[in-house]
Give the backbone structure.
Amino acid sequence: MRDLEDLRATVAREGRIVRVMVVETRGSTPRAAGAAMLVWQDGQSGSIGGGRLEHEATHDARVMLAGGGHRRVLRQALGPALGQCCGGAVVLVFEAFESSDVERATEALTHSGCWARPIEKGDGNPPNAALSDIGPPVEWSDGWLIERRSAVRPVVIHGAGHVGRALALVLAPLPDLGIMLADARTELLQGLPMRIELSNDPLRAITKAPDTAAHVIVTHDHALDLELCHRLLSRHFAGAGLIGSASKWTRFRQRLLALGHADTQISRISCPIGDPDLGKHPQAIALGVAAAIIKGADAKATDRRRTA
């Protein structure tokens, strides 16, 4: 379940909301199964693809809130009747959530890794898929909606300056990533989305991070950058990128070799990072790095900022 934390926080704030999820698709559709949005009387978050489909689904969700309904299924062709020409079709599930529903979902996902519930009337027996935590994150089977615990790829951003903050904001909405932003300058950690985990110690963030984490080093201090690289190379990590110029990386390589790190291990850190074709604006650099992270790359050497 990709949006459990957002769901919990929104229900705590709004009391009762409706979650609209794409549970099945056929043909060309704006979003895949699992895309969801949360709707309350005067707001919404998330998206099921925008356009007329989302507009009407939002309206229907508010009608459901006002009428006290709990569940609804909508099968919708994305054709002329909807004023769209995607050519595909979707199945949407509308579910009302209160705090007890969130706790029920949390308990199921924690203990079994799978939360299955009947949405449409059937024979009352759950499908075999509902008994397993192995399978797609979202499954629609015989009127049952099955959601499984989603694997989250951790990303640690060391440095909350212009680039680090921009990168965190670009990545934060993506449900498959877990973002930690670390900076000792706590004033830079204010006003960020609640999905971003915050740390006031970039060095400690390395210790706290799991071995599967990707690290992006974008601090304001070259000495801190070097220490972060040194500590990172002394443990396991999934990928790492360092902001800077080619000349900065040449000096860093020499220093890291002198500290006893093997050249093959040092080469796992990518520097420069980003995409030079996008320019040097912080948001442009963040977009390039984010694209590499989303693709599962190690943010290879393409930042040409030359910030020696």
About this structure: Confidence is low (pLDDT under 50) at residues 297-308. The longest helix spans residues 51-67.
